[in-house]
Request: fold
Amino acid sequence: MNICKTFGIYVAICVLPLGGCSSDLLGPSDPKEQVMLGDQYSDGEGVPQDYAAAAKCYRLAAEQGNAEAQNKLGVCYAWGRGVPRDTAEGVKWTRLAAEQGYLHAQARLGSMYEAGSYLPKDYAEAAKWYRLAAEQGQKTAVLKLVSMYYYGSGEQKDFAKAMKWARVAADQGLAFGSYHLGLMYHTGGQGQPQDLAEAVKWYRLAAEQGERLANYKLGVMYRDGQFVPQDYKEAVKGFRMAVEWGIAEAERDLGAMYENGHGVPQDDSEAVNWYRQAAYKGDEKAQFDLGRMYANGTWVPQDMVEAYAWFSIAADGGYVNAVKRRDDAGGELSPEQLSKAQKRATKLLEKYGTKKK
Reply:
């Protein structure tokens, strides 16, 4: 068996696909070349795809201390690709790579600690490894830190740290970072003053980068006239871009624009349609609005049983105004109708009661 290197690719001649890398003189001995050959086997590039051969190549390089190979061997064991699945071995090789400073292994180790997969859940350790990877520019780790510090995953919320890493993410061209900068300027908190001008700036950038939630937030600001002049048509534009991605809040608010004739011709049928779509995704306000449409007989036939059911699941979801409307609707029902309405509410709650984000 001979191996020749052509344009940076190892080409196997004779029987290399049967054995892949080997520790004798028949295969490459340089760890970087072993990783390259392993990648070829893993991807089926120039040789038949062979995960076992890839794992052999990665092991030879990993045992020589190559961090990239250690990380890839860790993935092989974690997924059972080319080797028997062995999570302990997966963690072992991932940690060896991470301790050498290999950024992708550090990010993977952080995700293991955050999710509690293969390792006990430990948010402090997760943040530690994410920081090490993020400081080397690993994008996934940067986004994880934004999320952990903004939403308080395991650690207390820390807007200063969330903003720091959101800026790093934004500088990397990541819409998630721009969007969260917009959120933090929009809401303020933890010593961060509200700054609507900055919020609009970052929402716009995030929207240009493809973040649909930023389109929704811009729509809200145009609807309410927050820093920007009130403009219902611009609000509708933002909501429409967001609903393309199934964002429940945007569907609900677009329904309200149709019900009120703001930025679009007044159209109750469209209002009901958008309220229903958002209600099915578990949005409590949309469930309340759909119940209101049934209670009033707006475009749909008046149906107090259906109204009671939708008010009930909205109330269960924490929408305070729904409690009184549910009780009022129940007061108009006979005992038989009320029993039917409660059964209907139970079915709706099972299907649509949990908000899907």
Observations:
- Residues 1-18 have pLDDT under 50 and may be disordered.
- The two ends are 55 Å apart (CA to CA).
- The longest strand covers residues 2-6.
- The CA atoms of residues 318 and 340 lie 23 Å apart.
